[in-house]
Each structure stands twice: as C-alpha cells, then as structure tokens.
C-alpha cells in the first residue's frame, strides 16, 4: 500500500516550457486535491476533483489545468511555465469525511 | 469563506520543555474538523492531531494535546516534553464537514525549533 505518490520529485523548467505532474493513490479515495506551498503562505488549493471525470477550481487555479481520467490518478499540467509557478506542489486524497493523506511533494523551479 | 490564522511565524523551545502553538479560525459553520499537521525538513505532511467541533473534550495524542475553545474559535497545540524530532513547520487546518468534498483551509504555519 503506497498511499499517495507523486512524480517527479524535483523538476527544473525554463519559462514557457510545459510539464505534467502525476499524482496516484491506491486507497480508492473519491476526492483528490492539488496544493502549492510557498514560503510564508501555507498551502493553497489549486484544483480539486470529487470523482473520476470531474474537476473544479480552487483558490489559485490560473496557469494550471487538471484531469482525472482514472479514479486513482490526478494530473496537474502547466502549459507555459512562469517563474511565479516556482513552488512545492502537494497532492492529497481522502474519503468523504476523513483526513487528507498527502503525497511527498514535488519541488518545481521555473527559470 | 473560512480563514485560519497562525500568529506566530517562528517559535523555539528547549528540549524537554512545553510549548504552545496558537491558531484561530473564522467560520459561520457549526460542523467542522480542525487539524494540526507537522512538516519536517523531509517535506512530508504528517497529521499530528484532529479535533471534531461537536466534541467538547480536547483531543490528545501522546505528547500532543489541543485546547479547543469553540466560542472563541481558538485551537492551540501543546507539545509536552519537546524532542529534537519535533523541529518542523506546524500547520493548523480547517475542514467543513457539511460537505464531503471540501478541501482543507490552512494557516500560514509556525516554524518550531527545539533546542538541545
């Protein structure tokens, strides 16, 4: 039982490049979330999903897109990376009224 | 919308001493969870303790306990017998229980250093 995993763990991009972050969970959780963590800002919600095939915007969705084609996977995409997207990204999942389980995070640097 | 405020950006404590981290929140909901998460240098988010709003009894987990004051919307974390491994960022978080899909709302965190 791996819990929540994230791929990759580290990535460096140049401005304008694109990439996809993959989140996978093996706990059969309905709900999945993408957060970003910046110094002094805590964790802020980017997008979330309440089930396979559904997504919704969070607090800071601009510049990101997401997809949930399979229940166990939640993808976060950056179409044209900007230095302001340099951050640590966390994925989380949960059942309806339970705690969230977090992945190990992805450190992304955009030059 | 809910907000969570942690007013202490940094704190330090001597090993074996007790320290209290503050958290206040603002909500019009009556049914919710409150959490404390620990984030050590490894970056992993680790759940420390959870409090259900309808429970009057304060939650405890070994050396960790909370002081939940619902009327004051206050949720502080007390760490007893502090250990070097407690050095981490600590985040207070709120979750509305009236809807199953609501995400966590986090405070900005408190960086705790335990000094030998």
Structural class of chain B: mainly beta
**How many angstroms does the end-to-end distance of chain A come to?**
36 Å
Structural classification of chain A: mainly beta
Distance between the termini of chain B: 41 Å
Cα gyration radius of chain B (Å): 14 Å
Strand content of chain A: over 45%
Major sheet of chain A, described briefly? 7 strands, mixed
Radius of gyration of chain A: 13 Å
Q: Give a count of the beta strands of chain A, DSSP E runs of length 2 or more.
A: 11
Chain pair forming the biggest interface: A-B, 23 and 19 residues
Count of runs of 4 or more consecutive helical residues of chain B: 0
Helix content of chain B: under 10%
The coarse silhouette of chain A is globular
Question: What is the H-and-E element order of chain B?
Answer: EEEEEEEEEEEE
Helix proportion range of chain A:
under 10%
Low-confidence stretches of chain B: none
Which oligomeric state applies?
Answer: heterodimer
The main pleated sheet of chain B reads as: 6 strands, mixed
Task: Write up this protein.
The complex is a heterodimer of chains A (111) and B (116). With 111 residues, chain A is mainly beta. Chain A contains no helices and eleven strands. In chain A, strand 9 and strand 10 (101-102) form a beta hairpin. Chain A is globular and about 40 Å long. The mean pLDDT of chain A is 94. Chain B is mainly β and 116 residues long. In chain B, strands 2, 5, 6, 10, 11 and 12 form a six-stranded mixed beta sheet that branches. A four-stranded antiparallel beta sheet of chain B has the order 3-9-8-7, with no helix packed on it. In chain B, strands 1-4 form a two-stranded antiparallel ribbon. Classes of the chains: A mainly beta (111), B mainly beta (116). Chain A binds chain B through residues 30-31, 33, 40-45, 48, 50, 58, 88, 90, 92, 96-97, 99-100, 102, 104-105, 107, and chain B through 9, 33, 35, 42-45, 47, 50, 91, 97, 100-101, 103-104, 106-109.
């Amino acid at each position: 039982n791996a819990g929540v995993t994230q791929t990759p763990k580290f990535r460096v991009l140049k401005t304008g490049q694109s990439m996809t972050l993959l989140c996978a969970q093996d706990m059969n959780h309905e709900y999945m979330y993408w957060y970003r963590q910046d110094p002094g800002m805590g964790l802020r919600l980017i997008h979330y999903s309440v089930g396979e095939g559904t997504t919704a915007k969070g607090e800071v969705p601009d510049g990101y897109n997401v997809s949930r084609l399979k229940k166990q996977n939640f993808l976060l995409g950056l179409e044209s990376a900007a230095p302001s997207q340099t951050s640590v990204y966390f994925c989380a999942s949960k059942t309806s009224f339970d705690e969230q389980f977090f992945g190990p995070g992805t450190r992304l640097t955009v030059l | 919308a809910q907000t969570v405020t942690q007013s202490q950006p940094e704190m330090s404590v001597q090993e074996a001493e007790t320290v209290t981290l503050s958290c206040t929140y603002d909500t019009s909901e009556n049914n919710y969870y409150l959490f404390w998460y620990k984030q050590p240098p490894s970056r992993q988010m680790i759940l420390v303790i959870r409090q259900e709003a309808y429970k009057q009894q304060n939650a405890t987990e070994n050396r960790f306990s909370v002081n939940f004051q619902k009327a004051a919307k206050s949720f502080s974390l007390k760490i007893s017998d502090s250990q070097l491994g407690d050095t981490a960022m600590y985040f207070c978080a709120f979750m509305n229980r009236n809807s199953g899909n609501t995400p966590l709302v986090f405070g900005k965190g408190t960086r705790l250093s335990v000094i030998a």
